[in-house]
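mind reviewing this fold:
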Amino acid sequence: MQAIILAAGEGSRMRPLTASRPKVMLPVAGRPFLEHIILRARAAGADRIVLVVGYCSDAVRSYFGDGSSLGLKIEY
């Protein structure tokens, strides 16, 4: 199953926390918020994730890569 996650946006209302990283990369319980969402999608049966990224997308891409470390495929 494929899941599409909207992970774009500057997070201007969360400044200064988002001055150098996207809001989806803010840590929650020791890992980026987006990782929690991806893991929930995987638990629901997703094996392929499409991330729609924008602001500071390089931070998201460098952290998650192709998704193999999480046991699924991630495309951007």
